[in-house]
UniProtKB/TrEMBL annotation, chain A:
Residues 37-155 form the Spondin domain. Pfam families: Spond_N (PF06468). The lineage of its organism: Bacteria, Pseudomonadati, Pseudomonadota, Gammaproteobacteria, Alteromonadales. Residues 1-22 form the signal peptide. This is Spondin domain-containing protein. The keyword Endoplasmic reticulum does not apply. It comes from the Bacteria. The keyword Signal applies. It comes from Paraglaciecola algarum. Coiled coil: none annotated. Keywords: Signal. NCBIfam families: NF038123_dom (NF038123).
From TrEMBL, chain B:
It comes from Paraglaciecola algarum. It comes from the Bacteria. Residues 1-26 form the signal peptide. NCBIfam families: NF038123_dom (NF038123). Keywords: Signal. This is Spondin domain-containing protein. InterPro entries: Spondin_N, Spondin_N_sf. Coiled coil: none annotated.
Length: 232, 251
């Protein structure tokens, strides 16, 4: 009888590092749209008893200045005040259609939820939003799709104006191709709470019509962004 | 086949059983020493090639349901592939993807798989179709599905590179899918540019006139909503999701 010798291969064992509440978290944000830009993105890990925004409630002045003009100054001040962790990479610049940006941070023990906001361009006060998403404690890769919200702070007239809070119209940065001389889609905002954005209307004229946005380019369907979170 | 017989202490009865085992061999491969009338013991070592394992079929049924109001879906491509992506937001679309998204032609995408299957025909609004695809011995294939919304310039929906490794025989998995824009043809919605029944116009055209990258679709505008030259109406509008997909591994 033949003797068969078996060689046993012992696979290397990987030992997990001791788990603490703090987590090494990588966040990647991808713009899924064909024709919209996002302003610099606030990616904030904070305590679960705080909230940057809440659908159905009035926008804070800090959310308003983000949603109307893309400024993260007020949100950054709040994040610092509540000892939140904030990603620098995603706040570095505008995010073009289908582009993505990512960064990593070591979140503090108590900062167990993730919130993400950035203005949608062109819009009057549209923004992408993730509100108090619990960061998983189990290592892995997680995907979240974001909808477009309306801050409810400005009428969606869709004509070129200003980005400062309370100034009507849309900001018009140079990387956007917009029309001119739109008469304005509407002068009122019916729902003044944060709500799902009804979408841009646009028109097909670059020189007149109701809107300064282009109806075949600057509309969207949800979701508008994909967030991939990797917890190590 | 090699058969070697060692002469040992042997019982004749065992020897008598041997011709059956030897019948498939030529005589010169066999060495047999007989010593009749002596009790012998024989050890027979038979070496045969390792049997070729019977291929195991791994089969899937993919059911696609059209959730739109008035967007027939072109014959679906169901593709099993080893790796890579058929489409992804941000990527430059392949010509195979462009032909499907502009003209509903799925043959190019079907050829990219190690196994694939086409739907029998268009899937109308509210209708569904179950498409079977089979591969052998591979349980960790990637599943991709594509189909065009035919009353558009280059809108499509589907699924990209779903990892099937965790789907055991008998398991089902469901999802819904949104609408993508191939980025190869501008969304003019004009007469003569869309192959579906709302227009009956052109399908695939190799000239690329749009962004050049795959993205989520912004939706059709239609003449009812301010696009003057559109031949589409409010009937053709869609929102996400556009289809429901159920994948069942049957064996």
């Amino acid at each position: 009888m033949k003797q068969i010798t078996k060689l046993l291969t012992v696979s290397a064992l990987t030992f997990a590092t001791t788990q603490s509440f703090a987590a090494n978290v990588t966040v990647e944000i991808k713009n899924l749209t064909q024709g919209l830009y996002f302003t610099p993105i606030a990616t904030v890990a904070h305590t679960s008893d705080s909230s940057l925004f809440e659908v159905g409630e009035m926008a804070s002045s800090e959310i308003q200045e983000m949603a109307e003009g893309g400024s993260l100054a007020g949100l950054t001040t709040i994040a610092t005040a509540i000892n939140a962790d904030m990603l620098a990479e995603t706040a570095a610049g505008p995010l073009a259609p289908t582009a993505k940006v990512s960064g990593s941070f070591m979140t503090a023990d108590s900062n167990t939820v993730l919130s993400i906001v950035a203005m949608i361009l062109p819009s009057n006060d549209g923004f992408i939003g993730l509100d108090n998403w619990t960061i998983p404690t189990e290592a892995g890769t997680y995907t979240v799709y974001l909808n477009a919200y309306d801050a409810g702070t400005e009428a969606n007239d869709e004509i070129i104006g200003g980005g400062a809070p309370g100034v009507p119209g849309m900001p018009a940065p140079p990387f956007l191709t917009l029309g001119t001389n739109g008469s304005g889609v509407t002068a009122t905002e019916t729902n003044t709470m944060i709500h799902i954005h009804p979408g841009n209307i646009g028109d097909d004229s670059a020189t007149d019509g109701k809107s300064d946005v282009t109806n075949t380019v600057h509309r969207w369907l949800n979701p508008v962004a994909k967030v991939t979170v990797t917890v190590q | 086949m090699l058969i070697k017989i060692k002469n040992q202490k042997l019982k004749l009865a065992l020897m008598l059983a041997l011709p059956l085992a030897l019948s498939a061999c030529s005589d010169d491969e066999v060495e047999v020493i007989k010593e009749v009338e002596v009790i012998k013991e024989v050890e027979v070592i038979v070496e045969v090639p390792a049997p070729v394992p019977t291929p195991v079929d791994v089969s899937y049924e993919v059911t696609i349901t059209n959730l739109t109001n008035a967007q027939p879906l072109s014959p679906a491509a169901v593709v099993l592939h080893a790796d890579g992506n058929l489409f992804e937001v941000g990527m430059v679309p392949s010509v195979e993807l462009e032909k499907m998204a502009e003209g509903g032609m799925n043959t190019g995408l079907l050829a990219l798989g190690m196994a694939s299957a086409s739907g029998a025909g268009a899937i109308g609004p509210g209708a569904s179709e179950t498409i079977s695809v089979k591969v052998q011995d591979i349980t960790d294939a990637k599943l991709s599905i594509t189909t065009m919304l035919v009353n558009t310039n280059d809108a499509f929906t589907g699924l990209n590179a779903l990892d099937l490794s965790s789907l055991a025989a008998g398991d089902s998995w469901s999802t819904t899918a949104g609408v993508y824009d191939a980025g190869t043809e501008v969304n003019s919605e004009m007469a003569g540019t869309m192959p579906g029944p709302a227009d009956g116009g052109e399908g695939f055209n190799p000239t690329r006139t749009d962004t050049g990258f795959v993205s989520m679709h912004p939706g059709v505008v239609t003449s009812d909503d301010g696009l003057t030259n559109s031949v589409l109406t409010v009937q053709h509008k869609f929102d996400n999701p556009a289809i429901h997909i159920m994948v069942t591994r049957t064996e």
